[in-house]
Amino acid sequence: MNFSKRDQKHNWHPYTQHKTAADFPAIVKGKDALLWDENGNEYIDAIASWWVNPFGHSNQVIADAIYKQLTTLEHVLFGGFTHNKAVELSEKLMEILPSNQKKIFYSDNGSTAVEIAIKSALQYNYNKGIKKLKIIAFEDAFHGDTFGAMAASGITFFTEAFKGSLLEVVRIPVPTNGNEDKSIKALKKLVETNEFAAFVFEPLVLGAAGMVMYQPEVLDKLITICKQNNVFTIADEVMTGFGKTGKTFACDYLEQKPDMMCLSKALTGGTIPMAITTFSQEIFDGFYDDDTNKALFHGHTFTANPTGCAAALASISLLQTDEIEANILRVNQSHLSFQEKIKLHPRVQTTRVLGVIFALEIKRESQESYYGNFRNKLYHFFIENGVILRPVGNIVYILPPYIIENQQLEKVYSTIEKALEEIF
Known about the structure:
Low-confidence stretches: none
Strand content: 15-25%
CATH superfamily of the largest domain: Type I PLP-dependent aspartate aminotransferase-like (Major domain)
CATH architecture of the largest domain: 3-Layer(aba) Sandwich
Mean pLDDT: 96
Shape: globular
Largest sheet: 7 strands, mixed
Number of domains: 2
Number of strands: 16
Distance between the termini: 36 Å
Oligomer: single chain
CATH topology of the largest domain: Aspartate Aminotransferase, domain 2
Number of helices: 14
């Protein structure tokens, strides 16, 4: 078979410099928290395959829902039609979303969910005859790779080639411990100009920045400032949504609620690409008009795909079980215990935990590049030891499937401890 060698002939992988990349393991099977490659090597998927598989691989409940849907209606266009699964999913989401969310717009992935939110904020003002063309975002944010989402992202090497082609975005400091006042003051100064349509943020955890965390109280203050100055707020819950932070959504920790939310990744339990942007009634009403030109002219061929909707309904049903709630708590407690053990290690700079998310920053004399040599050494060390982790520079994070077993978690922890001793 040798899929690993054959892969190189035609496939172009994401975030990869193929001239220097090693061969990729070819995964042929997955079950629960484990993956196996074509050579029979076993790996613990400690990042839930880019944060999408909270219920593990080859989940039977979701697979059965998909199969049943495929034998009934695999797809129908959503332009001019609807179907029962889209209706049922929207109703289910209304039960679990913050109470101010009233409308659902379906798309394909996290980037487009953010893209739709940004476009909606801009067009809402355009429809009202108001000129607001700028967006506010956090430093070091990541919101996706389409042009609007990319513009809102603050990781520069992702966007360097496209300077001058992007929407104007002004960044404020992330309100981490000690930086709260600086972030608040920066936002106040910007919104007073009346030039900004929206503030887009990853609530409580900046994922691609290295699981950087901040407190809900300061985010409440930032959202309040935006509301007082007629700036829409967009919560990018693509990573944090559906239980990752210990609550269904990170926004459930807040008193204030965003005007828009972006959902994807764990939405379908890691099975079918799908995304959702949710809106308050006020935003929808800004497009509700006798003038056809004021409609939101955005769409995707697979918008509200019935099979994806069926997968999402099954995924949400799993999330709401007592078993999964207990597993989320179990993983959180395990992370906290490991944090107590490892935080005083001489090579550990900082640690942080929220829900099923654990992050550890390794001490380095100089700042590590995102995909630098040290990061790559760590990555390959973990793979060689049967654990899938994707460090961000010198930050190692764990974000496992909720169903990961205790002994599997212990192997992940011990492998990180081993790396701290050997990768120097």
